[in-house]
Amino acid sequence: MTSHGEGIEEEQISRIEKGMGKDCHGGIETVICTSPSIVCLTQKLIAELIGTYFIIFSGCGVVVVNVLYGGKVTFPGICVTWGLIVMVMIYSVGHISGAHFNPAVTITFAFFRRFPWYQVPLYIGAQLSGSLLASLTLRLMFNVTPEAFFGTTPADSVARALVAEIIISFLLMFVISGVATDSRAIGELAGIAVGMTIILNVFVAGPISGASMNPARSLGPAIVMGVYKGIWIYIVGPIVGIMAGGFVYNFIRFTDKPLRELTKSASFLRSVSPSSKS
């Protein structure tokens, strides 16, 4: 990697943090408001809150309907609903906020310098607020009892549930990194790819852990319903898996060099503009 590429990266990060120019929150290119910046940030937070709200409302709502109405939705129907609502919200507000909807994704983007750290707690607050509001809405609409809990709990083994969450969260972030942060990918297909990944993950891990992949998805229902069984799994698992998925994709992002050259560089995880490669 050349010094020219690193200079481009530093300038881009500086502009992101100042709220100027173009941004790439989660790989979805947006134009950042330059004045007033607080209004622009507020718009992003509202987009995250609304997006997370409807993801939880629809995804958890279909779980409630399936329980209360004799399994009419069916398990495949639940899987498809989760994938569809995530895809729809990515296309709806991705150009505004980056469509994170997940505290673990926000933290990972910040860790890999694709998102400003000072906005992380605000994004997480918006995501958790959306989840709490959606969970409260569902409880009031359907008069849900703890027996019809629409959150996530381990089916049997805590260890199996934790491993499942780590694996599916890894896959989710690996796909997000590939389709939404790599300039060589077709960005318009990001929503479809992520939505399909959600469907597959729920099919595989739903019976084991509930297939959370998102601390906000689990915390909202847990707090509203007062059911905290194994809640730590759905905080630790997604964060570990998503961080690992982002790390691995960033490691293999540029593999045109021999491994011996990659291991000599201490900055191979840094994002580089395609124009900087020679």
UniProtKB/TrEMBL annotation:
Membrane topology: Multi-pass membrane protein
Keywords: Membrane, Transmembrane, Transmembrane helix, Transport
Keyword Aminoacyl-tRNA synthetase listed: no
GO molecular function terms noted in the UniProt entry: channel activity
Annotated TM spans: 45-69, 75-94, 115-138, 158-177, 189-211, 231-252
One Gene Ontology CC term in the entry: membrane
Subcellular location: Membrane
Protein family (similarity comment): Belongs to the MIP/aquaporin (TC 1.A.8) family.
NCBIfam families: MIP
The name this protein goes by in its record: Aquaporin NIP4-1 isoform X1
Annotated source species: Raphanus sativus
